[in-house]
């Protein structure tokens, strides 16, 4: 069986489409934020990775969201650019359509809640009203594009008969992709299999559309549920890089892709993802957001292909297949034996960055990172891979309305701590000299003196990047302002400097969050 899709043409039945919602669902999660330049970098990386659809944002949320979708639509030419809207919000869909105007390939994704719980307590609507809004949303979206995706928010907890009616209505009014999200991550693979099988068997016109899954990971079943959806006939997965997203996140794109590739004997599906680019895109996202993946994260964690057990090491040396079900190179890891120091040149540094998954840095970013590496190499005898990762993550972010320039701190038990700090605010350098209850408190007071704000410090955490007294300190700062939570990170051989960099990073992310006021009920 094949489907004639408005954006993809004839699609073979074994083809799986990947919609990446890192820039929408992922970016709206607590602590995460990206400015326009960072979103554009990510969008280009996702297109180069081979994703079929980039969900670029929710245009009605704010002027900034509208602009980012518009700019991504202008930039990306080989990938479908998608904008989110509520089925019941005519303005939502019109804003989405306007934001997508420059796109060569465009999709409007409208949604509404369908579960009894959501309809009663969140929407305060009767089922018949929901059906009417699905129809109205479809009719409005068709004014802008023939590629329309409709989602049943909390679809996995929706009455099966009503869900069939909703899907039938969405198809009747133009939907070409039907998405059934497991919005709260409640389902098991058996639940997902039942839902998609039921819809495909019962709904008129189901054979003319693509069914899609959107699985959250609250019970750690996001990827397993996505695989179950494919086996039940779904041919699209909504997912994110590194699995970022609301609460426990979404199903991770890299994990789904490699499950399909590694177990092709069980899942005979094809896709367009260039798996060798998975690590670099993962690292790019970690750099932009300041959130590293855990070391044991599948596919892209730094321990994913590490072997410490003597038995495992012996097996790997004899035949890598004894303990590796995929090669590190297949997802972008490369082996590098280069040891870097203060005499290392730019070529060796670039090679090391490529081996660590940072092969897509811009020239200016590479120059900044190399300069910082030279400064670090003058202070440390040995520069470890983790040192390089920390300095790259700290230096190449584009959240730059506020920049750290210089600082001097005095402390100890003889007199109050004092911080002399200089920051650059929107291109203008400003300084302050402030006392505090210890050097960190003094430094943070100086930041508040230079850039007044009402954010509350929720978390201050310091860890050593590597071992030894000359190790870089990596600091995490969490700020909260009017319900908006952001995390910032900074690294430096001086612990107080790393703390200030982390605070400044968090402030920059908070400035982005301030621009974004989400309408009610947007998660799918």
Set down the secondary structure blueprint.
Layout: E1 2-5, E2 9-12, E3 17-20, H1 22-26, H2 36-49, E4 53-57, H3 63-75, E5 80-86, H4 90-99, E6 106-113, H5 116-123, H6 127-141, E7 148-153, H7 160-172, E8 177-182, H8 189-202, E9 210-215, H9 222-231, E10 236-239, H10 253-262, H11 278-289, H12 310-318, H13 346-355, H14 363-379, H15 385-395, E11 402-410, E12 417-425, E13 428-436, H16 439-450, E14 456-464, E15 473-481, E16 484-492, H17 495-514
Parallel strand pairs: 3-4, 3-10, 4-5, 5-6, 6-7, 7-8, 8-9, 9-10
Antiparallel strand pairs: 1-2, 11-12, 12-13, 14-15, 15-16
Describe the fold and architecture.
- A hairpin with a 6-residue loop joins strand 11 (402-410) and strand 12.
- This protein has four domains: 15-270, TIM Barrel; 303-332, no CATH class; 334-395, no CATH class; 402-514, Alpha-isopropylmalate synthase LeuA, regulatory domain (Double Stranded RNA Binding Domain).
- With 524 residues, it is of the alpha/beta class.
- The strands form four sheets. The protein has an eight-stranded parallel barrel with strand order 3-4-5-6-7-8-9-10, surrounded by seven helices. A three-stranded antiparallel β-sheet has the order 11-12-13, with helices on one face. The protein has a three-stranded antiparallel β-sheet with strand order 14-15-16.
- The model has no long low-confidence stretch (mean pLDDT 90).
- The protein has 17 helices and 16 strands.
């Amino acid at each position: 069986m094949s489907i004639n899709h408005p954006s993809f043409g004839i699609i073979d039945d074994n083809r799986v489409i990947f919609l990446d919602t890192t820039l929408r669902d992922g970016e709206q999660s607590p602590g995460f934020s990206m400015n326009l330049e960072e979103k554009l970098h990510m969008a280009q990386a996702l297109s180069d990775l081979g994703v079929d659809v980039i969900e670029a944002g929710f245009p009605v949320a704010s002027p900034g969201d509208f602009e980012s979708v518009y700019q991504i639509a202008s930039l990306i030419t080989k990938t479908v650019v998608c904008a989110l809207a509520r089925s019941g919000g005519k303005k939502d869909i019109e804003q989405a359509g306007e934001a997508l105007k420059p796109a060569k390939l465009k999709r409007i994704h409208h949604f509404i809640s369908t579960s009894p719980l959501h309809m009663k307590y969140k929407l305060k609507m009767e089922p018949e009203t929901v059906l009417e809004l699905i129809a109205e949303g479809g009719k409005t979206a068709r004014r802008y594009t023939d590629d329309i995706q409709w989602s049943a928010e909390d679809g996995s907890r929706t009455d099966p008969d009503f869900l069939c009616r909703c899907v039938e209505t969405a198809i009747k009014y133009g939907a070409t992709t039907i998405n059934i999200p497991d919005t709260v991550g409640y389902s098991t693979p058996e639940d997902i299999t039942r839902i998609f099988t039921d819809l495909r068997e019962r709904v008129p016109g189901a054979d003319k559309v693509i069914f899609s899954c959107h699985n959250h990971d609250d019970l750690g079943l996001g990827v397993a549920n996505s695989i179950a959806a494919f086996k039940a006939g779904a041919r699209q997965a909504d997912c994110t890089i590194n699995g970022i997203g609301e609460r426990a996140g979404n199903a991770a794109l890299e994990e789904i892709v490699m499950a399909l590739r590694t177990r092709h004997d069980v899942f005979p599906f094809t896709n367009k993802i260039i798996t060798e680019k998975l690590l670099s895109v993962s690292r790019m996202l970690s750099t932009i957001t300041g959130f590293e993946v855990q070391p044991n994260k599948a596919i892209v964690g730094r321990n994913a292909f590490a072997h410490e057990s003597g038995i495992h090491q012996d097996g790997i040396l004899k035949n890598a297949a004894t303990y590796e079900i995929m090669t590190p190179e297949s997802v972008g890891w490369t082996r590098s034996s280069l040891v870097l120091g203060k005499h290392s040149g730019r070529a060796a540094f670039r090679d090391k960055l490529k081996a660590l998954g940072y092969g897509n840095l811009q020239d200016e970013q590479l120059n900044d990172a190399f300069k910082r590496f030279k400064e670090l190499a003058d202070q440390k005898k040995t520069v470890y891979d983790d040192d390089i990762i920390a300095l790259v993550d700290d230096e190449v972010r584009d959240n730059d309305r506020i920049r750290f320039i210089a600082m001097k701190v005095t402390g100890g038990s003889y007199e109050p701590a004092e911080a002399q700090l200089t920051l650059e605010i929107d291109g203008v350098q400003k300084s302050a000299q402030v006392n505090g209850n210890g050097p960190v408190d003094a430094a943070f007071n100086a930041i508040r003196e230079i850039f007044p704000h009402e954010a509350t410090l929720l978390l201050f955490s310091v860890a050593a990047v590597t071992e030894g007294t000359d190790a870089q300190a990596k600091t995490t700062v969490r700020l909260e302002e009017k319900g908006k939570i952001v995390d910032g990170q900074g690294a430096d051989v001086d612990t107080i400097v790393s703390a200030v960099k982390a605070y400044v990073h968090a402030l920059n992310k908070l400035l982005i969050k301030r621009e974004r006021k989400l309408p009610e009920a947007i998660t799918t």
